[in-house]
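Z., the sequence and structure:
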Amino acid sequence: MSNTYIAYHFTVEPKELGTEILIAELGELPFDSFIETETGFSAYILQSLWNETILDEIYILNNPDFEISHTIEFIEQVNWNEEWEKNFNPIYVDEKCYVRAPFHEKLNAEYEIVIEPKMSFGTGHHETTHMMIQHLLETDVRNKKTLDMGCGTAILAILAEMKGAKPIDAIDIDNWCYLNSIENCERNNCNHISVYEGDASLLKGKKYDIIIANINRNILLNDMQIYVDCLNENGILFLSGFYTEDFEAINESCITKGLTFVKQLERHNWASLKYVKH
């Protein structure tokens, strides 16, 4: 009994925001692992810690703004490496940046990042991370002081260091992401990334040449003035984590705070924006 896991396979719409909220709520319960899937994620809990009413108090499941369904599976002795191999395929962005797990074969790519996501998100598979990688690939970041806000797995901070950015701060409010980011920075032999656990309140008095913020619409709008205040003159702000229909709200916030719009990327109804502070 104690070695049997119960898997909840969730389908979530809208996926990114709904997944973020649901995992935060499940994290308060004895669920100990989460694996991202194409339509949502799977959450795992030991049967010995489970009961039939465990989801009854989960607020988001009764929120009409989200469509969430799930199936339940009983699994004997979960092999987490096997689960990752089933759910995590390597990706190749613009034939320059190769993102893989430790168990994938190496590739002679210009930038090769090894990520073991564990319970945090940011493998490069999600459209927003993919677009942020594209932004960084075409940007000269050498010797630029950089912030990766809402860093997840720290994949973007790692790519920034590989391209010559330094020093780099990587911040996430989630403890799993904080710990996983430290592991991934070590795994990729990064020497210029400092990882912090917290929110935008950590940015007081800080200044950056480049800020990467891949979070969600509401947090971005709430913290936008902080990001702008932290940008040096001619600094660059990369934003993602929202849908294309959110462009007007995000753009208005940026423009009214003195930023200049430079570029928009779109991928499967997700958007990523580039601004400069003059």
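DSSP finds seven helices and 14 strands in the chain. The chain has a mean pLDDT of 90.

Let me know what you think.
H.
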